[in-house]
Structure prediction request, 155 residues.
Amino acid sequence: MAVRIDDTDRKILGELQRDASQSLDEIAARVGSSKTPVWNRIRKMREAGIMGPQTVVLDAEALGFEACFFVLIRTSEHDAEWQARFLQALRDRPEVQEAHRLAGDIDYILKVRVKNARAYDVFYQALISEVKVHNVTALLSMEEIKSTTMLPLGT
Prediction:
């Protein structure tokens, strides 16, 4: 069930997406409100599950994670036991930043961030030793052109 939000809520969410470290006073000034109503709206949206945990976006390359692979996985296994093992294997690996189950020829796509190709091979070997997959294709991202977690709220 979708939660109803108004234009002020969207403005607040837009500000939080842009920079969640802003003070309530700064957010309130930017959305044309005062501190207490902004805090109440944020609290209600958190309680409604619109916002997840606040985190910090780290610079992967500055920390030595220079390789980003998109991993396409095809499997001939589709039973619940295989899927549970596969999902657990993904959860256990911090290199997996995103995992999606797809419609079409490819069953899953993973976004894997590692230090280099050798580290990717270690990840790959560990994954295929735990779960049977039919085909794996790894695509190395040569350049990240755009990456965001911001949603287009229409603010």
In short: The first strand starts at residue 67 and ends at 74. The chain is about 40% helix and 15% strand.
